[in-house]
């Protein structure tokens, strides 16, 4: 079977499904109707749905019937939407106030359903097991962990996992690939600086945490510019600054929060100490005290080179070499797919969704292009067949 031609034949059907999902988006861990739709479609195809101790999200299995080495791989799609008020004006725009598929997970879900249909119909052409993971709550950053805790990677345990995400840097019809460290870790910090509040006319009697926090915001910029190797990819952004209640009072407390993004795991581990030393030094120099709260969020996504190699081979054979793009650069964004990669090697690739105006992820005008559906379906199917030959 010509995988791409077959995917193109199915395009109309999965477009209808994708648009239905788009019209009925659900926030992470509330994907009740989405989960029901996925199960319904899988049952229609004949795919075996596995029990999973989780309220939303679906795990399903397709067993290849070709005799040979029993391999197991997992394919993952995220299914949740975002708390955004849609502004696309589309006839199938979200019917839910303040909820929208602004990250294209409606497309990812439709792609994996299309893959399920192709692989089920071609099950005599591979040996082993393909696990389909429809993951909830990617945007809430806990979905992958919940799925893993519910047993998504247990018996049979996949030896590798593949995922995709719409990429606005990649033209429609193409995919973008990257081998090695691809997406950043995402951690967050909160620093509270405490002084002693008082009258603005007599600052010499007070201890001013607002001034200390202002110095701290500036000093924190020196981590990137003076402490981390310039070749290493690193971002620290201070994103909140809260202090004060009136124009004539120096406050007793100031709070700043921020986001830290790294590609290197050792750099990542070193950041809490660096923040603590810098902010602590400034706070004590200005007669204040400080407290740092640091939360390690999502690890970085590191694409396994051999998985990327298999993907590249399969994609070139299926969608053509001219449509398989080496990405120009890795990303500073994050993906909770990283939690799967902590357990099994794998990779995530970019499915081209184009860079037309408004095609910005998490933007109220974003819409996943249906033309990308067959490309995603064919690429993932071909990857599974290549690995489980
Ligand atoms: Zn997103
Ligand atoms: Zn997303």
Question: Can you describe what's shown?
Answer:
The chain is 35% helix and 25% strand. With 389 residues, it is α/β, with parallel strands linked by helices. It has two domains: 3-182 and 300-387, Zn peptidases (Aminopeptidase, 3-Layer(aba) Sandwich); 185-298, Alpha-Beta Plaits, CATH 3.30.70. It has an eight-stranded mixed beta sheet, sandwiched between helices. The protein has a four-stranded antiparallel beta sheet with strand order 10-12-8-13, covered by helices on one side. A hairpin with a 7-residue loop joins strand 1 and strand 2 (58-65). Helix 3 (32-45) runs parallel beside helix 4. The longest helix is centred in the C-terminal third of the chain and has 21 residues, at 265-285.
Approximately how much beta-strand content do the residues carry? 25-35%
Strand order of the largest sheet: 1-2-4-3-5-16-6-15
Which residues form runs of ≥5 with pLDDT under 50? none
Q: Estimate percent helicity.
A: 25-40%
Instruction: Give the CATH class of the largest domain.
Output: Alpha Beta
């Amino acid at each position: 079977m010509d995988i791409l031609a077959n995917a193109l034949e199915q395009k109309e059907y999965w477009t209808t499904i994708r648009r239905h999902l788009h019209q009925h988006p659900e926030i992470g861990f509330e994907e009740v109707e989405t989960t029901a739709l996925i199960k319904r479609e899988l049952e229609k195809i004949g795919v075996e749905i596995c029990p999973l101790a989780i309220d939303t999200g679906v795990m399903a299995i397709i067993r290849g019937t070709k005799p040979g080495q029993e391999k197991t791989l997992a394919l993952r799609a995220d299914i949740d939407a975002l708390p955004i008020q849609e502004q696309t004006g589309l006839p199938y725009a979200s019917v839910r106030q303040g909820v929208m598929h602004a990250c294209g997970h409606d497309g990812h879900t439709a792609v994996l359903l299309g893959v399920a249909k192709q692989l089920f119909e071609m099950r005599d052409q591979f040996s082993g097991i393909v696990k389909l993971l429809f993951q909830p709550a990617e945007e809430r950053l806990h979905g992958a962990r919940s799925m893993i805790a519910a047993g998504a990677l247990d018996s049979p345990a996949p030896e590798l996992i593949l995922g995709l995400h719409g990429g606005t840097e990649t033209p429609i019809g193409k995919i973008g690939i990257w081998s090695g460290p691809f997406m950043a870790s995402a951690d967050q910090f909160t620093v509270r600086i405490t002084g002693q509040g008082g009258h603005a006319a007599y600052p010499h009697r007070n201890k001013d945490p607002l001034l200390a926090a202002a110095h701290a915001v500036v000093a924190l910029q020196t981590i990137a510019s003076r402490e981390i190797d310039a070749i290493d990819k690193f971002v620290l952004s201070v994103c909140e600054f809260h202090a004060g209640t009136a124009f004539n009072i120096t406050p007793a407390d100031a709070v700043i929060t921020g986001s830290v993004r790294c590609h290197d795991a050792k750099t990542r581990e070193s950041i809490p100490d660096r923040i603590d030393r810098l902010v602590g030094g400034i706070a004590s120099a200005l007669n204040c005290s400080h407290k740092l709260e640091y939360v390690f969020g999502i690890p970085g996504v590191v694409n396994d080179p051999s998985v990327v190699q298999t993907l590249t081979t399969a994609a070139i054979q299926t969608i053509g070499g001219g449509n398989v793009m080496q990405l120009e650069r890795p990303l500073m964004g994050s993906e909770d797919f990283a939690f799967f990669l902590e357990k099994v090697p794998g990779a995530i690739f970019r499915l081209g969704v184009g860079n037309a105006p408004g095609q910005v992820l998490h933007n109220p005008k974003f819409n996943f292009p249906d033309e990308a559906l067959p490309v995603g379906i064919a690429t993932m199917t071909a990857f599974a067949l290549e690995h489980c030959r």
